[in-house]
Design brief:
The structure is a homodimer. Chain A has helices spanning 2-10, 12-23, 35-52, 121-138, 160-166, 168-171, 214-217, 224-235, 256-264, 269-276, 286-295, 335-349, 371-384, 398-407, 432-451; strands at residues 55-60, 67-72, 80-86, 106-108, 111-113, 144-150, 175-178, 190-195, 197-206, 212-213, 300-307, 316-317, 320-329, 353-361, 364-365, 389-392, 411-413, 429-431. By secondary structure, chain A is an alpha+beta fold. Helix content of chain A is 37%, strand content 21%. The first copy, chain A, has two domains: 2-195 and 364-451, Aminopeptidase (3-Layer(aba) Sandwich); 197-251 and 296-361, Alpha-Beta Plaits (2-Layer Sandwich). At the A-B interface, strand 10, helix 7, helix 8, helix 11 and strand 11 of A face strand 10, helix 7, helix 8, helix 11 and strand 11 of B. Strand 11 (300-307) of chain A pairs antiparallel with strand 11 (300-307) of chain B, so a sheet runs across the interface.
Chain lengths: 455, 455
């Protein structure tokens, strides 16, 4: 392994320049005007795959953005790893909060600041480079490897399931590795074994056909801004509990073992607040915080909009108001049932309010034992010098379930970002020590798998 | 009077061209980038005043936008009218709902469509042209006249009170005439004798310093969008009644006479809905609707904003949410007391929510009897062929109270817009018959005042 790590060190400056080039492409999947950037970014990934020695590299078209595919399948007796990542990124607004332009990667105090630095370009890049180092030093890989890098993760991976289904045999693998998550904290190597699911709602209320003068009409009309606020207020109590009947019915209570793991995780509320610049939490009990972010469902308003939002005064009764909301789901909540409950609740309270639902993704619960889990654990210990802990994450990755269900392969997470790296936020960043650790972990991981002969 | 009306008819095409030039200036006072247009519009009004024969025409600077002043003071024994209007306009968004560009006045089916067509450039223009017609035909006016056209009405007339105070003697007049309101309906001449007051609030909630990933944090944090919705929902019940303690304490109940006037007004809910394209009202009782829009206070959300509002998905817990709200006030509500009540209510419910208050304007109640009221009534009957009714309006004009209190002159409304003219809305418009009626009414009004010798 030493020669692989040496190669990474020697090539550090070149690697940083190449990463900057990848981060410079504003591949924001949520905004249609960035469609050309999406394609440019897919092409960049394909070129990079060819440079590092992968074969059969191609863009595979979907009904949405293309998936970039590449493989290396010249280790006949060894297992096959399918690596998954994504090349699309979140929007950058509020852009005025960025300290440097989001698509000009800037290094400050050893951190690389750019949209996508951690989520997920930085992590994808790290895997490319682990492969490159291994290839350059050894001329070959110890395992078979397939890469798929998708372009719609940040908008719910709408076409990935169909892609996986229609390329089932091409994607067949013994194990899937995903690097789109994080470690628990710097110096605390951790492996994610569960993700929350997601359903996504738009709650719309249309009143009049146009702005109405609040002097001439105010008082006689229901005001969509107020009615929407009243609707939302009926959906969640002030302590944060969702008030939609049946919402919690299928939530699996944490096992005593899980609660013990939480207690052993070393999570502190003070550290969590400091890392994320949080002013206050709903509770300062660390177990309760972990339960709320990993083991409990949510009902969060992402955006609320209606009426005049410019400077100065415009005294209208607005014609319409909208809220964008999502629910994170935990085992065993059924996304379709949650959609049904939310729609029924809203309809009962106010027939003028319309609910659109999207992205019905259940929660994911992975395995923490067996040879592939042992290999991940061993590689993380090799790279970071400490026994890793298995933890859950609060986020959602649509791809996970598709791959597990369709390919019938176990899915493992090799996530290297840190809590302070600011996923989805202004000033997203990544740091070289984590990247280095990630390359070492991935290289050691495929070495370990190479030693596992196929049954 | 006939020669004045003849002059208007002969010059109709020229008048329309000149009005279009005035409407072409996007003098939006709420948007700082239109400051040059504000000044250009003030200059246009000054030039027009000179063209029609007013004297001492000038822009008078204020701490905000300039007031355009002009006079004609050559009728020593006759009363002096101070005419008030405004040259600024509302913003145009949502601009996509306009059927023709808001600053390219377009005539369709006899209506002139443009921002400001009714509120207030069209009405100001009509008064200019009544003066012009009289001057051209008779070489002089029968009364003394002062015009002030301000540029901040649509943002609360913040500097008008100071302007009126510091130019008290220059503005001295026997009577003030305001043309910034409407008639009850086409063919139903009406004179406004009361306006609602206004206080304007921004309700702000700041949570984290930045967007936070709803997967990683959702559940552990109070969500500003939801907390703001919950706050608003506590302020008004679902029937539309304000729940802030003390809010209604000082509201004067309508007198039996006022209720009789409402019943006689000819107002119908069907007509009100049809004219304004309203889908539904809180009540279909016509007296109750009139009470709610003219005689009762309001608490209306004008805008609500927080978090992501672009297309697609951005699953963040937003750092902040804001609502813009105003209360229309009726006699004898005290704006300062209402601000105090709202702030105390919010503070008691949630100390993180910040309330900013602006534009503390009490309601206005005018006189319906006396020689000046009789002159307005007579002029409206002359122009529209029917005895006018005195009604209240639900809107607010800050200038009214300043002028009444500082100049100690009675204020009368000569409003000519119609309900269907769409004040503050997309496709605002005005029509030539109303403009013609307005010119006839104003010309007849100053003829009547010219016959009143000064005491």
């Amino acid at each position: 392994m030493d020669n692989v790590i040496d190669f990474v060190n020697v090539n550090r400056d070149r690697y940083l320049d190449e990463l900057k080039a990848l981060l410079a492409i504003p591949s924001i999947s949520a905004l249609p005007e960035h469609a050309p950037d999406i394609r440019r970014c897919a092409e960049w990934c394909a070129d990079e795959m060819r440079r590092i020695g992968l074969q059969n590299v191609k863009l595979i078209e979907t009904a949405g953005n293309p998936v970039v595919y590449g493989d290396w399948l010249n280790a006949p007796d060894a297992p096959t790893i399918l690596f998954y990542g994504h090349y699309d990124v979140q929007p950058v607004d509020p852009v005025e909060l960025w300290q440097s332009p989001p698509f000009e990667a800037t290094i400050r105090d050893g951190e690389i600041y750019a949209r996508g630095a951690a989520d997920d370009k930085g992590q994808v890049f790290m895997h490319f480079k682990a492969v490159e180092a291994h290839m350059k030093q050894n001329g070959r890989l110890p395992v078979n490897m397939k890469f798929i890098i998708e372009g719609e993760e940040e908008v719910g991976s709408a076409h990935l399931d169909e892609f996986v289904r229609s390329h089932r045999s091409e994607l067949a693998a013994d194990v899937v590795v995903i690097s789109d998550s994080g470690m628990f904290a710097k110096g605390v190597p951790s492996i994610c074994y569960g993700l929350r699911g997601l359903v996504y709602f738009q709650i719309d209320l249309r009143g009049s056909s146009t702005d109405l003068h609040s002097g001439s009409f105010g008082g006689a009309l229901a005001n969509p801004g107020m009615v929407l606020a009243q609707m939302l207020a009926q959906m969640k109590d002030r302590g944060g509990r969702v008030k939609i009947p049946g919402f919690y019915d299928d939530v699996v209570r944490p096992t005593p073992g899980e609660l013990r793991d939480l207690a052993r995780s070393g999570f502190t509320v003070a550290g969590f607040k400091r890392d994320h610049l949080l002013r206050s939490l709903r509770t300062d009990d660390p177990i309760e915080v972990m339960k709320r972010i990993w083991l409990a469902p949510t009902f969060e308003v992402h955006g609320i909009a209606g009426g005049y939002q410019g400077p100065g005064v415009k005294t209208v009764v607005p014609p319409r108001a909208t809220a964008i909301v999502s629910c994170r789901l935990v085992p065993d909540m059924d996304p379709k049932k949650i959609v049904r409950l939310v729609k029924a609740f809203v309809k009962k309270k106010n027939r003028d309010v319309v609910v659109y639902a999207e992205h019905e993704l259940p929660a994911y619960q992975g395995k923490t034992t067996g040879p592939y889990a042992d290999a991940i654990r061993g590689a993380m210990k090799f790279a970071f010098g400490k026994e890793p802990v298995f933890v859950r994450e609060g986020g959602s990755i649509g791809a996970v379930l598709s791959m597990e269900r369709v390919l019938k392969s176990p899915v493992y997470f090799l996530g290297l970002s840190l809590p302070e790296h600011g996923y989805h936020a202004p000033n997203e960043n990544f740091d070289w020590p984590q990247a280095e650790g990630g390359m070492a972990a991935f290289a050691d991981y495929f070495r370990r798998l190479g030693e596992m002969r196929k049954a």
